[in-house]
Amino acid sequence: MLKRLCLAGSALALLAVCPAPAPALAQTAPRPSDSVDPLIGTGGEGHTFPGAVAPFGMVQLSPDTDTSCVLRDCYPHAAGYRYDDPTIVGFSHTHFSGAGHSDLGDVLVMPVAGDDVPMDPGTPAAPGYRSRFSHATETAKPGYYAVTLADHGIRAEMTAGSRVGVHRYSFPAGKAAHLVLDLRSSLYNYPGKILWSGLHLRDDGVLTGFRETRGWAPGRKLFFAMRFSAPLTGHALVNRETAIPYKGFQGPGRDSDALAEKLGQALEERLDFGVLTRPLEVKVGISGVDEAGALANLDGEAGGFDDIHAQTQAAWDTALGAVTFEAEAPMRRIFATALYHSLLAPSIWSDRDGRYRGPDDQIHQATDFTVRSTFSLWDTFRAEHPLLTLIQPERTNTDIVRSLLASQTHSPDGILPVWQFAGRETWTMIGYHAVPVIADAYMKGIGGFDANAALDAMVASADHASYGGLGEYIARGYVPIDKEPEAASKTVEYAYDDWTIARMARKLGRSDIAARFEKRAGNWRNSFDASSGWLRARKTDGQFRTPFDPTAINYGSDYTEGNAWQYSWFVPQDQAGLFRLLGGDARTIRKLDAMFDFDLSKIDYSHAEDIAGLIGQYIHGNEPSHHVAYLYSYAGAPWRTQERLGQIVASQYADTPAGLSGNDDLGQMSAWLVFTALGFYPVAPGANEYVIGRPFLPKATLMLPGGKRFVISTDNLSTTNRYVQSVTLNGRPLTRTYLRDDEIRQGGELRFVMSARPNRQWGKSASSRPFSTSTAVSSPPTRR
């Protein structure tokens, strides 16, 4: 047998067979995936994971560096991996990208070499099956992750397809190869989270199993099937539980005393392969339906590690190729990675045969679309979903809207998803923000769903009186703080959602619904204190609650993950109406400046874990601020927007592990950067407009359906030339500060000329400003 020397960490390790180079790493020609760095966001507060995943894939196969956290301590490890941790516990198959809450981490696998096989992870100071590692041995690319496990001398590689994950482990020469499969492990772990689980080693050597967990999504069920490239030489099924077994969901229900079968709450399995002469491949399919679904998903994506990796890299190059661009490093890596993070969710949830588990915990069948889940809608309605309408307009948005509608049909509460994953509702955050996602897609002409049925589902959610103070909101025109927490935020977010219902109803010709929700869309005024200039919470007696401090941030108070500084700007549907209440353009600009320039030296926000990326009272690390820099354009001062965008991009994004200032929140932070770098942003999804900011790329092209292209070209772009001097659209001067969606979709060229000096006249006139309900001359806008 030929033996080769391979570099492992800082020492040379003699391996039986060195792993073949990943196909992506052997390419010399630039391809879209080459500029992506999945390690961006894995440190600091980004909460992203570096592991292998296909575009919108069901499997996110990634390393976990800590799975022992409880309660608030889990926040830094919401994605399982944290860049500054010294050890890897194992590789699990499900992860969130950038969430502010942790869960998942299903089916953890860890390779072990030698005769001693520990069955507990241990601690970083006293490792069991966990291992130390060095970032110098890591490689992370779209669809591929690799690292050397220093304590075991094992090179671990990961890739993933749409519904499968594939591991490849190269063990040291002469040492026995083992795997530890730990079903006890989970992110956001605590006693009693694993309600029930099962393992079954089948006669053909395939290992199947399941588990039911009580976590962020209660009663979540996941099934898996695992196939190995080498035969087993031995195994041990171990039940480590000490509690009374849960007697609810029982899974397949076979003989739990059989040598190849165990049921319980704390299951592990040791899998032995002897001394191997080639790398061990482990292929895993998962399903939310049953083990048969996991097996079908496993068999449905043919081939081994290299085959799956090649297919997934090609899928990534196609998906990322929706935007071609030019940029200098590090902006090239920042932008490419932001685009990559925007294409991870909503993830696939239905099996290959179309079956899926719904919010009612029942099995349903989708016949002509792929069901998606992982909807972080309070975050993603703002920019992530509008971006997908441009770069994934057919497949993704048809699937997304139909998935939202299917979920509403099967929901025991009859409401569209709020924050859903694995088909289960978590009721996290506020609003009914599936509504603007559907309305925005419909208003842009994206079909593939029954629009009238969709509107009915939207109205049903908006009229669900028992949800989040909606009954009080409908009766009073605002949510009272003595009846419902975070009332000020809920009032304005409901009003915006209502406006998008009205927009869609008006376009469908359903004037009764349109009129009712147009009136509700003005409810933001009922919580706005014009005398002080702040959005404030009101009580049932109509009085604003006192005492009042616009800088106060406390969970469960008047606002959601923010304060009056952020939420007083949330009127996307009528910024012009808000500015009149603030006293006009000049006063509005002064207040915007005061927000960015606020002195934080005497304020401590350390108690609020989601508050990160502060520029004064502007908080880029959390979503309520994301549109605010663009609001200068509504006040006739787009040059001030251009200044603030430069300030934000320079301070909040970097091509480092800590390169995201806050949770990526399933792609929202990244989608903000993608839009902003292109030069425009959807302040009010549903308006069919994008507010023009300033570009950060010399050139970019949106590759649109039908072979159309929308090119954004920039002259004189530099650090010094940060101001827009002039803009042309298809060669004609553009004096307004917004683009219409149809102008992008029909293809053409948007050209910026940049300068070191601001053009204070461009976009100053009232007629040049973006859409506001109170100043609109038509609906939808048709202004030139």
Describe the structure.
- This is Putative alpha-1,2-mannosidase.
- Residues 36-287 form the Glycosyl hydrolase family 92 N-terminal domain.
- This protein has 784 residues and is an alpha+beta fold.
- It has a domain at 4-319: Beta-galactosidase, Chain A, domain 5, CATH 2.70.98.
- The chain contains 18 helices and 40 strands.
- The chain has a nine-stranded antiparallel sheet. Strands 21-35-36-40-37-38 form a six-stranded mixed sheet.
- Helix 8 packs parallel to helix 11 and helix 9 packs antiparallel against helix 11.
- It is globular and about 75 Å long.
- The termini are far apart.
Write the topology of this structure.
Blueprint: E1 4-8, E2 11-15, H1 23-26, E3 52-53, E4 60-64, E5 87-88, E6 90-92, E7 108-113, E8 131-132, E9 139-141, E10 144-149, E11 154-160, E12 164-170, E13 176-182, E14 194-201, E15 207-214, E16 218-228, E17 234-239, E18 261-264, E19 267-275, E20 280-287, H2 291-300, H3 305-320, E21 323-326, H4 331-341, E22 347-348, E23 355-357, E24 363-365, E25 372-373, E26 375-376, H5 377-380, H6 384-391, H7 395-410, E27 419-421, E28 424-425, H8 434-443, H9 451-462, H10 470-476, H11 487-508, H12 511-520, E29 528-529, E30 534-535, H13 564-567, H14 575-581, H15 585-596, E31 614-615, E32 618-619, H16 638-652, H17 668-678, E33 680-681, E34 689-692, E35 699-703, E36 709-715, E37 723-729, E38 732-733, E39 738-740, H18 741-745, E40 748-755
Helix pairs in contact: 4-17, 8-9, 8-11, 9-11, 11-12
Domain Glycosyl hydrolase family 92 N-terminal: 36-287
Biased composition (Polar residues): 762-784
Signal peptide: 1-26
